[in-house]
Design a protein that fits this description.
Shape: elongated
Oligomer: single chain
Number of strands: 61
Number of helices: 8
Radius of gyration: 33 Å
Mean pLDDT: 95
Distance between the termini: 93 Å
């Protein structure tokens, strides 16, 4: 056979195979990082009144056009964007159907091809729509595409539904492309693949003549065939053709095991020629709501550990990329979450593809932020939503709007396009045997819910509102423990994943979160991790280990619970390590690993409890800390638990080189000056407080303490004396509480401060405070939990170790500099305050001491409940700290850990050691 003939045969086969597939041709770019310039004209606002260029996809506000609007704005701008571009007709399109597809355009969109309107103006900004433009194209040459987009819809219900608690943008913000299909083609598919292996697919085919064969073949994603082909003979008078078959023991899809298959569906002519072929990924799984019992997937009870997610990026608004989608999914999975709610609109298709492939349960939502679409528009948009997303195994529910934005006349429309007949939710109300109440308080979860005989399967679709560091992780421990006691608990969705702070091109690229409306995420606008990220990661770990402290009597055995739904713990791995920490005077923060090992393998079924034997060697208690890390079936870290071993009182203090000079004291009417090791300590006799510390070459401006934090006291007695070669200063205070202070200066030892106080009542915080000028601080290093700040009701998630952070003035939700320098720090054994005078270190003999570093600046628009009281002092050593509330609830309504500290007047003592 001649080479030329072989080449022609190959070319003929290639063209034939090519013609059997749907061809996609992008007219725009594919995402925020890959755009195509179109001609553009904006009618109002910035850069309006002239033809120029704009990248597509994008929103015009982020490229300097028009005006910015947040959903709560009373005045909504109504600019219009006019787009033009051209594209060429290709010879291979002859005899084909050509569709133009818009993945998303805000809001009313009119499409013209070669001067003729492609179809009805599309209304609704978050949905895929398309037009058949076959008859509008020129046979050869260039085609003119003109698109007019109105930011505000001519339909009032669209504006009411879509002008919600999020940024309002204008423009073609998702890709635009052509779909080229054969004359007879498959328009769409709707699959129902159940956990028992039964498989049904509705095939919507166009231009069937009757008698064609619709054939399906299921494959693994690597192309390996699964089962035999299955087929049906097409009947042209039917709305869709249905394929049915059954598979034996298919691999099931779940968030823990996201097993996917691919169906290859072909239309064949009577002579066996393939007319059109499409491929569709899917998963075998069955969802059940069992009234008063719970949510079940594939026969196993599941609990949704979820978060609400807006589609957003600071520079590009709602125009995203695969990289952004991956960041969000990685953040979700990284927190040990397994679910996400699409609040309050459908996401990019690519985000759902990722959820399918890595395993995330999804609530997909029709827009309706406290107001709904009318019947005419709503029915079209329900169809567009379900038709696009129906085949994603990750989607468990459809949300018909949000918080009262329910057009109840649309509830039954979802099943028209979904052969799985997924349950329709009304997020925030009891509906369809579900209770998705928003922002329940702790009393409701712990008491009212348990008494509700017909409470429905409970999973709040919004709770733990994370505004300005309130909520999200704070209070979650109590809520979660209470929810787990409810038999029909199915989890919940925290509000919200990311801070929606937009970079304003009209305000010198400043971040704008519209006051306290948009900034309430667990991560920052560029996905900066906040403290709640790690709190959630521990509380929602599917491997639960009680965080009780250990001591030298610990036998190496830990109580453990398997909170997976499908995974036996024998599929997971564990590793432990023992470490020693550097001292305060050492520059490094790195610990030294002394021993490592693995626990005894443990088989523990989902839902079961057991004992994990670490098999610690003899002498393990001679180390400073124990770390245990769990890894999932994919070898990714689930969580790392850490326990201090060495008590603070036993931690080796850095030896101070003393000069051979005695300690001296000097007293006059106003002050006492103690000189020890060439350092002078000044005390005010009228207040009893330390005034300053003077070294030979500098002054350390530590002063104003120790004062009882948050309490008015007055000096009762002040006494300075020398005894047994040491010098002591004692001071007693009374008033709203009592405080006894004793400073001890002894040769060769750090300065010691002993204090005892008695206080009564419910207080936000308690302990002692000092002042030190914030302007002089450059950083802090400490041994304790870190590196993030904590609240009384958000202590989980931090690791024990030596930490360092530079000074910053980060403000959660407004200035994303993490970890934030200011705030409460937990379980501090010692802390070094670095500054531009001279660093000084304070040691504590109390393993439960908290250190407060200054007070976080208030955000521009805030609520007192998310910025609770803190000590007036700059640096405080506390036995009790304040809890934080949420946007909608005071701390007192969030459970036991969120209550104020109850003091009964019993003596509380502490000892601090100072090294200057």
């Amino acid at each position: 056979m001649k080479p030329t003939y072989l080449f022609c045969l190959f070319l003929l086969y290639s063209v034939s195979a090519f013609s059997q597939q749907t061809i996609k041709r992008y007219l725009s770019g594919t995402d925020k990082d890959h755009t195509v310039l179109w001609d553009f004209y904006c009618t109002e606002g910035r850069k309006s009144g002239q033809w120029t260029k704009i990248p597509v996809p994008s929103q015009w506000e982020t490229h300097g056009f028009g005006n910015y609007n947040y959903g709560h704005d009373k005045v909504k701008y109504k600019e219009q964007g006019q787009y033009k571009t051209t594209f060429a007709t290709e010879p291979g399109w002859k005899g084909k159907h050509i569709f133009i597809v818009f993945e998303g355009s805000m809001t009313d969109t009119r499409v013209m091809v070669n001067g003729k309107q492609a179809g009805d103006i599309h209304q609704g900004g978050f949905y895929r729509f398309k037009y058949d433009i076959t008859d509008l194209l020129k046979l050869t040459g260039q085609n003119l595409l003109e698109v007019t987009v109105d930011k505000q819809s001519a339909n009032k219900s669209v504006n009411k539904a879509e002008n919600g608690d999020f940024w309002i943008f204008g423009g073609i913000f998702r890709p635009v492309y052509l779909e080229i299909t054969p004359e007879t083609y498959i328009d769409r598919l709707a699959v129902n693949a159940a956990a028992d292996g039964t498989f049904t697919m509705d095939v919507y085919a166009a231009n069937l003549k009757g008698g064609e064969t619709i054939e399906g073949q299921v494959q693994k994603l690597n192309g390996q065939k699964v089962g035999k082909p299955f087929k049906t003979i097409a009947q042209s008078d039917r709305e869709f053709q249905q394929l049915n078959t059954t598979f034996v023991n298919p691999l099931k899809w779940s968030a823990e095991y996201p097993n996917l298959y691919r169906a290859v569906i072909s239309i064949k002519s009577k002579n066996g020629a393939v007319l059109h072929q499409v491929k569709q990924k899917f998963g075998f799984r069955t969802i059940e709501i069992r009234k008063n019992d719970g949510l079940y997937l594939n026969g196993a009870r599941i609990v949704l550990k979820g978060v609400n997610r807006h589609s957003f990026w600071p520079e590009s608004g709602r125009t995203l990329s695969r990289g952004v989608h991956m960041l969000d999914v990685q953040a979700i999975k990284g927190m040990n979450m397994n679910a996400v709610r699409m609040s309050h609109y459908p996401p990019d298709q690519e985000f759902l593809d990722i959820c399918d492939s890595v395993g995330v349960y999804v609530l997909d939502e029709l827009t309706g932020w406290q107001a709904s679409y009318d019947n005419i528009v709503g029915r079209k948009l329900v169809k567009e939503l379900v038709v696009r997303d129906v085949n994603h195994p990750s989607i468990l529910f459809w949300d018909n709007g949000n918080e009262g934005g329910f057009n109840r006349g649309l509830d039954n429309d979802y099943r028209l396009y979904d052969p799985q007949n997924r349950t329709v939710l009304h997020p925030w109300e009891k509906f369809n045997n579900t209770n998705t109440k928003h922002y329940p308080d702790y009393n409701y979860v712990a008491n009212t819910l348990l008494k509700d005989a017909d409470g429905g399967v409970f999973f709040p679709t919004e709770f733990m509102h994370g505004l300005y560091d309130g909520g999200a992780g704070a209070g979650l421990d109590d809520f979660w423990n209470a929810m787990l006691r409810y038999k029909a608990n199915a989890g919940g969705f925290i509000w919200v994943l990311g801070d929606e702070a937009l970079i304003r091109t009209d305000k010198n690229n400043a971040y704008d979160a519209d006051g306290n409306h948009a900034p309430d995420g667990i991560v920052g606008p560029h996905r900066e991790k906040e403290a709640s990220y790690y709190t959630i990661k521990e509380i929602w770990s599917p491997i639960y280990i009680d965080p009780q402290p250990i001591n030298e009597k610990f036998d190496g055995k830990l109580a453990i619970e398997n909170r997976y739904s499908f995974t036996n713990l024998q599929a997971c791995t564990f590793k432990w390590k023992l470490v020693k920490f550097p001292g305060a005077s050492v520059k490094t923060t790195a610990s030294v690993i002394t021993l490592t090992g693995k626990p005894t393998p443990l088989s523990l079924a989902p839902g079961a409890t057991g004992i994990l034997n670490l098999k610690l060697p003899a002498g393990w208690a001679n180390n400073d800390a124990l770390y245990l890390t769990a890894y999932d079936v994919n070898k990714k870290e689930v969580f790392t638990w850490s326990w201090p071993i060495t008590a603070p009182a036993k931690i080796a203090k850095a030896k101070i080189p003393w000069v051979k000079m005695p300690i001296m004291g000097k007293e006059n009417a106003e002050e006492v000056v103690i000189t020890a090791n060439r350092i002078k300590y000044y005390f005010n006799k009228s207040t009893g407080y330390l005034i300053k510390v003077v070294k030979p070459n500098t002054t350390v401006s530590l002063s104003g303490g120790p004062a009882l934090a948050g309490v008015k006291t007055r000096l009762k007695n002040f006494n300075y004396k020398q005894e047994d070669g040491s010098h002591t200063i004692e001071a007693d205070y009374d008033g709203d509480a009592s405080l006894h202070v004793r400073w001890v200066f002894a040769w060769g030892k750090p300065v010691q401060l002993q204090y005892t106080y008695r206080q009564s009542g419910d207080v936000d915080f308690h302990g002692i405070s000092f002042n030190y000028p914030e302007s002089k601080v450059t950083g802090a290093k400490w041994l304790g939990r870190g590196p993030y700040k904590v609240w009384k009701n958000r202590l989980r998630g931090q690791q024990f170790g030596v930490w360092y952070k530079k000074y910053n003035n980060g403000i959660t939700g407004e200035k994303w500099d993490y970890p934030e320098f200011k705030g409460y720090h937990q379980e501090v054994n010692w802390i070094t305050i670095e500054n531009n005078e001279a660093p000084f270190t304070v040691y504590s003999d109390d393993k439960n001491i908290f250190v407060q570093l200054y007070k976080q600046d208030r955000a521009n628009a805030t609520l007192d409940r998310v910025e609770p009281p803190m000590p007036a002092g700059d640096i405080s050593f506390l036995q009790g700290i304040s809890a934080v509330g949420t946007k909608f609830q005071d701390a007192k309504d969030l459970g036991p850990q969120s209550q104020k500290n109850k003091l009964t007047g019993e003596a509380i003592s502490g000892t601090l050691l100072f090294e200057f």
